[in-house]
Amino acid sequence: MSPVALVTGASRGIGRGIAVALAAAGHDVVVNYARNAGAAEEVRAEVEKRGVRAHLARADIGDAAARAALVDSAYAAFGRIDLLVNNAGVAPAVRADLLEATEESFDRLIGVNLKGPYFLTQLVANRMIAQDGPPARIVTISSMSADTASVNRGDYCVAKAGLAMMTRLYAVRLAEHGIGVYEIRPGIIATDMTGPVRTRYDKLILEDGILPQRRWGEPADVARAVVAIAQGALSYSTGQVIDVDGGFHLRRL
Ligand code: NAP
Question: What total of structural domains would you count in the chain?
Fold first, then answer.
Protein backbone atom coordinates (compact mmCIF):
# COMPACT_ATOMS: atom_id res chain seq x y z
CA MET A 1 0.00 0.00 0.00
CA SER A 2 1.32 3.47 -0.88
CA PRO A 3 2.07 5.93 1.92
CA VAL A 4 -0.38 8.83 2.09
CA ALA A 5 0.54 12.52 2.15
CA LEU A 6 -1.78 15.42 2.94
CA VAL A 7 -0.41 18.62 1.39
CA THR A 8 -2.18 21.86 2.24
CA GLY A 9 -2.24 24.57 -0.42
CA ALA A 10 -1.32 22.00 -3.06
CA SER A 11 -3.07 23.63 -6.02
CA ARG A 12 -0.30 26.10 -6.88
CA GLY A 13 3.31 27.06 -6.26
CA ILE A 14 5.38 25.24 -3.67
CA GLY A 15 2.52 22.98 -2.56
CA ARG A 16 1.91 21.85 -6.11
CA GLY A 17 5.62 21.05 -6.53
CA ILE A 18 5.57 19.06 -3.28
CA ALA A 19 2.43 17.13 -4.24
CA VAL A 20 3.83 16.11 -7.62
CA ALA A 21 7.25 15.16 -6.19
CA LEU A 22 5.64 13.05 -3.47
CA ALA A 23 3.51 11.33 -6.11
CA ALA A 24 6.65 10.58 -8.12
CA ALA A 25 8.11 9.08 -4.93
CA GLY A 26 5.10 6.75 -4.60
CA HIS A 27 2.71 8.62 -2.30
CA ASP A 28 -1.03 8.87 -2.65
CA VAL A 29 -1.76 12.57 -2.19
CA VAL A 30 -4.57 14.55 -0.59
CA VAL A 31 -4.53 17.80 -2.56
CA ASN A 32 -5.93 20.58 -0.38
CA TYR A 33 -6.78 23.98 -1.84
CA ALA A 34 -8.83 27.03 -0.90
CA ARG A 35 -10.57 28.40 -4.00
CA ASN A 36 -8.82 27.42 -7.19
CA ALA A 37 -10.57 24.18 -8.23
CA GLY A 38 -9.18 24.33 -11.78
CA ALA A 39 -5.59 24.41 -10.56
CA ALA A 40 -6.32 21.60 -8.10
CA GLU A 41 -7.71 19.47 -10.95
CA GLU A 42 -4.46 19.99 -12.85
CA VAL A 43 -2.54 18.74 -9.83
CA ARG A 44 -4.83 15.72 -9.59
CA ALA A 45 -3.92 14.85 -13.20
CA GLU A 46 -0.19 15.31 -12.50
CA VAL A 47 -0.40 13.06 -9.43
CA GLU A 48 -2.42 10.32 -11.16
CA LYS A 49 -0.05 10.38 -14.14
CA ARG A 50 2.58 9.07 -11.73
CA GLY A 51 0.55 5.95 -10.97
CA VAL A 52 -0.74 6.89 -7.51
CA ARG A 53 -4.06 8.20 -6.20
CA ALA A 54 -5.13 11.81 -5.68
CA HIS A 55 -7.98 13.08 -3.52
CA LEU A 56 -9.02 16.72 -3.89
CA ALA A 57 -10.18 18.47 -0.72
CA ARG A 58 -11.27 22.07 -0.67
CA ALA A 59 -10.84 23.57 2.81
CA ASP A 60 -9.87 26.95 4.22
CA ILE A 61 -7.04 26.08 6.62
CA GLY A 62 -7.94 29.11 8.72
CA ASP A 63 -11.39 27.69 9.53
CA ALA A 64 -11.78 25.11 12.34
CA ALA A 65 -14.77 23.28 10.88
CA ALA A 66 -13.09 23.12 7.47
CA ARG A 67 -9.92 21.66 9.02
CA ALA A 68 -11.93 18.93 10.74
CA ALA A 69 -13.78 18.13 7.51
CA LEU A 70 -10.46 18.02 5.62
CA VAL A 71 -8.98 15.44 7.97
CA ASP A 72 -12.17 13.37 7.92
CA SER A 73 -12.24 13.38 4.14
CA ALA A 74 -8.56 12.38 3.94
CA TYR A 75 -9.18 9.39 6.23
CA ALA A 76 -12.38 8.50 4.36
CA ALA A 77 -10.45 8.50 1.08
CA PHE A 78 -7.24 6.73 2.09
CA GLY A 79 -7.63 5.43 5.67
CA ARG A 80 -4.41 6.98 6.98
CA ILE A 81 -1.98 9.92 6.77
CA ASP A 82 1.75 9.13 6.81
CA LEU A 83 2.92 12.65 6.03
CA LEU A 84 1.32 16.01 6.77
CA VAL A 85 2.79 18.94 4.87
CA ASN A 86 1.65 22.28 6.29
CA ASN A 87 2.27 24.43 3.24
CA ALA A 88 -0.79 26.64 2.68
CA GLY A 89 -0.10 30.27 3.39
CA VAL A 90 -0.94 33.79 2.32
CA ALA A 91 0.95 37.04 1.97
CA PRO A 92 -0.55 40.28 3.28
CA ALA A 93 -2.92 41.89 0.77
CA VAL A 94 -0.76 45.02 0.93
CA ARG A 95 2.77 45.38 2.20
CA ALA A 96 2.18 48.02 4.86
CA ASP A 97 4.75 49.60 7.15
CA LEU A 98 4.85 48.27 10.71
CA LEU A 99 3.64 51.64 12.03
CA GLU A 100 0.54 51.56 9.83
CA ALA A 101 -0.40 47.92 9.22
CA THR A 102 -3.90 46.90 10.33
CA GLU A 103 -5.25 44.44 12.88
CA GLU A 104 -7.42 43.03 10.12
CA SER A 105 -4.35 41.97 8.14
CA PHE A 106 -2.70 40.62 11.31
CA ASP A 107 -5.74 38.48 12.17
CA ARG A 108 -5.90 37.08 8.62
CA LEU A 109 -2.22 36.22 8.52
CA ILE A 110 -2.18 34.64 11.95
CA GLY A 111 -5.41 32.73 11.23
CA VAL A 112 -4.27 31.15 7.96
CA ASN A 113 -0.49 30.97 8.42
CA LEU A 114 -0.18 30.04 12.11
CA LYS A 115 -3.41 29.08 13.86
CA GLY A 116 -4.47 26.95 10.88
CA PRO A 117 -1.37 24.73 10.79
CA TYR A 118 -1.10 24.70 14.60
CA PHE A 119 -4.53 23.14 15.03
CA LEU A 120 -4.42 21.07 11.85
CA THR A 121 -1.24 19.51 13.22
CA GLN A 122 -3.01 18.81 16.50
CA LEU A 123 -5.88 17.07 14.70
CA VAL A 124 -3.65 15.03 12.40
CA ALA A 125 -1.15 14.14 15.14
CA ASN A 126 -3.90 12.59 17.23
CA ARG A 127 -5.01 10.49 14.27
CA MET A 128 -1.40 9.51 13.46
CA ILE A 129 -0.86 8.37 17.06
CA ALA A 130 -3.92 6.13 16.78
CA GLN A 131 -2.95 4.53 13.45
CA ASP A 132 -0.76 1.44 12.92
CA GLY A 133 2.10 1.21 10.47
CA PRO A 134 5.40 2.94 9.77
CA PRO A 135 6.36 6.15 11.59
CA ALA A 136 4.46 9.21 10.42
CA ARG A 137 6.04 12.60 9.80
CA ILE A 138 5.01 16.26 9.83
CA VAL A 139 6.69 18.96 7.75
CA THR A 140 5.86 22.65 8.01
CA ILE A 141 6.83 25.12 5.30
CA SER A 142 7.70 28.30 7.18
CA SER A 143 9.89 30.95 5.53
CA MET A 144 13.14 32.88 5.76
CA SER A 145 10.74 35.40 7.34
CA ALA A 146 10.75 33.27 10.51
CA ASP A 147 13.97 35.06 11.43
CA THR A 148 14.39 37.86 8.89
CA ALA A 149 12.73 41.15 9.85
CA SER A 150 10.78 42.74 6.97
CA VAL A 151 9.08 45.81 8.41
CA ASN A 152 6.63 45.98 5.50
CA ARG A 153 5.04 42.63 6.43
CA GLY A 154 5.39 42.22 10.16
CA ASP A 155 2.26 40.09 10.37
CA TYR A 156 3.74 37.55 7.94
CA CYS A 157 7.05 37.46 9.86
CA VAL A 158 5.34 36.98 13.23
CA ALA A 159 3.21 34.13 11.86
CA LYS A 160 6.26 32.40 10.36
CA ALA A 161 8.28 32.84 13.56
CA GLY A 162 5.37 31.18 15.36
CA LEU A 163 5.64 28.19 13.02
CA ALA A 164 9.26 27.76 14.08
CA MET A 165 8.22 27.35 17.72
CA MET A 166 5.26 25.20 16.68
CA THR A 167 7.70 22.79 15.03
CA ARG A 168 9.83 22.55 18.16
CA LEU A 169 6.80 22.02 20.38
CA TYR A 170 5.30 19.23 18.29
CA ALA A 171 8.75 17.66 17.78
CA VAL A 172 9.16 17.32 21.54
CA ARG A 173 5.60 16.19 22.19
CA LEU A 174 5.39 13.63 19.38
CA ALA A 175 8.85 12.07 19.69
CA GLU A 176 7.57 9.42 22.10
CA HIS A 177 5.09 8.38 19.40
CA GLY A 178 7.83 8.05 16.79
CA ILE A 179 6.55 11.00 14.76
CA GLY A 180 9.30 13.22 13.34
CA VAL A 181 8.49 16.92 12.97
CA TYR A 182 10.45 19.25 10.68
CA GLU A 183 10.49 22.85 9.49
CA ILE A 184 11.52 23.76 5.97
CA ARG A 185 12.44 27.41 5.64
CA PRO A 186 12.32 28.50 1.98
CA GLY A 187 14.00 31.65 0.76
CA ILE A 188 12.79 33.39 -2.39
CA ILE A 189 10.85 30.95 -4.53
CA ALA A 190 9.32 31.70 -7.94
CA THR A 191 5.53 31.33 -7.45
CA ASP A 192 2.38 33.44 -7.71
CA MET A 193 3.13 34.76 -4.21
CA THR A 194 6.36 36.40 -5.32
CA GLY A 195 4.94 37.48 -8.72
CA PRO A 196 4.28 41.07 -7.57
CA VAL A 197 7.91 41.56 -6.45
CA ARG A 198 9.52 39.70 -9.34
CA THR A 199 11.35 42.66 -10.88
CA ARG A 200 12.64 44.00 -7.57
CA TYR A 201 13.84 40.56 -6.46
CA ASP A 202 15.44 39.90 -9.88
CA LYS A 203 17.70 42.84 -9.15
CA LEU A 204 18.43 41.73 -5.57
CA ILE A 205 19.26 38.19 -6.62
CA LEU A 206 20.89 38.55 -10.02
CA GLU A 207 22.62 41.93 -9.67
CA ASP A 208 23.05 42.70 -5.95
CA GLY A 209 23.99 39.14 -4.89
CA ILE A 210 21.67 38.98 -1.86
CA LEU A 211 21.83 35.17 -2.15
CA PRO A 212 25.17 33.30 -2.19
CA GLN A 213 23.62 30.98 -4.79
CA ARG A 214 22.59 33.57 -7.37
CA ARG A 215 19.28 32.24 -8.63
CA TRP A 216 15.60 32.14 -7.72
CA GLY A 217 14.45 29.07 -5.83
CA GLU A 218 11.94 26.81 -7.53
CA PRO A 219 9.10 24.78 -5.95
CA ALA A 220 11.10 21.66 -6.92
CA ASP A 221 13.95 22.79 -4.63
CA VAL A 222 11.58 22.74 -1.64
CA ALA A 223 9.91 19.53 -2.82
CA ARG A 224 13.22 17.63 -2.87
CA ALA A 225 13.73 18.41 0.82
CA VAL A 226 10.21 17.21 1.64
CA VAL A 227 10.76 13.96 -0.25
CA ALA A 228 14.03 13.37 1.61
CA ILE A 229 12.18 13.71 4.91
CA ALA A 230 9.30 11.56 3.69
CA GLN A 231 11.75 8.80 2.78
CA GLY A 232 13.29 8.84 6.25
CA ALA A 233 16.58 10.58 5.42
CA LEU A 234 16.33 12.47 8.75
CA SER A 235 14.85 9.74 10.89
CA TYR A 236 17.26 10.38 13.82
CA SER A 237 16.56 14.14 13.73
CA THR A 238 13.44 15.96 14.83
CA GLY A 239 12.57 19.61 15.26
CA GLN A 240 15.17 20.20 12.53
CA VAL A 241 15.11 23.39 10.48
CA ILE A 242 16.13 22.96 6.85
CA ASP A 243 16.94 26.16 4.99
CA VAL A 244 16.13 25.96 1.28
CA ASP A 245 17.25 29.49 0.48
CA GLY A 246 20.38 29.50 -1.68
CA GLY A 247 22.43 30.27 1.42
CA PHE A 248 20.52 33.44 2.36
CA HIS A 249 20.67 32.64 6.09
CA LEU A 250 24.48 32.68 6.20
CA ARG A 251 26.00 35.70 7.89
CA ARG A 252 28.54 37.36 5.67
CA LEU A 253 31.10 40.11 6.04
P1 NAP B 1 1.07 30.61 -3.69
O2 NAP B 1 1.75 30.41 -5.00
O3 NAP B 1 0.35 31.88 -3.42
O4 NAP B 1 0.10 29.36 -3.43
C5 NAP B 1 -0.61 29.32 -2.22
C6 NAP B 1 -1.34 27.99 -2.10
O7 NAP B 1 -1.98 27.98 -0.81
C8 NAP B 1 -2.43 27.81 -3.14
O9 NAP B 1 -2.52 26.43 -3.43
C10 NAP B 1 -3.68 28.29 -2.40
O11 NAP B 1 -4.89 27.69 -2.85
C12 NAP B 1 -3.38 27.81 -0.99
N13 NAP B 1 -4.08 28.55 0.06
C14 NAP B 1 -4.09 29.90 0.28
N15 NAP B 1 -4.86 30.19 1.34
C16 NAP B 1 -5.36 29.01 1.79
C17 NAP B 1 -6.22 28.66 2.83
N18 NAP B 1 -6.76 29.58 3.64
N19 NAP B 1 -6.54 27.36 2.99
C20 NAP B 1 -6.03 26.40 2.17
N21 NAP B 1 -5.19 26.68 1.17
C22 NAP B 1 -4.86 27.97 0.98
O23 NAP B 1 2.15 30.49 -2.51
P24 NAP B 1 3.60 29.78 -2.45
O25 NAP B 1 4.60 30.80 -2.83
O26 NAP B 1 3.56 28.48 -3.14
O27 NAP B 1 3.72 29.57 -0.87
C28 NAP B 1 3.46 28.34 -0.24
C29 NAP B 1 3.96 28.41 1.20
O30 NAP B 1 5.36 28.67 1.19
C31 NAP B 1 3.32 29.54 2.01
O32 NAP B 1 3.14 29.10 3.34
C33 NAP B 1 4.36 30.64 1.94
O34 NAP B 1 4.26 31.51 3.03
C35 NAP B 1 5.63 29.83 1.97
N36 NAP B 1 6.80 30.52 1.43
C37 NAP B 1 6.82 31.00 0.16
C38 NAP B 1 7.96 31.63 -0.32
C39 NAP B 1 8.08 32.17 -1.71
O40 NAP B 1 9.08 32.86 -1.99
N41 NAP B 1 7.15 31.91 -2.61
C42 NAP B 1 9.08 31.76 0.51
C43 NAP B 1 9.02 31.26 1.80
C44 NAP B 1 7.89 30.63 2.24
P45 NAP B 1 -5.77 28.32 -4.07
O46 NAP B 1 -5.03 27.95 -5.34
O47 NAP B 1 -7.08 27.61 -3.96
O48 NAP B 1 -5.82 29.79 -3.85
Answer: 1
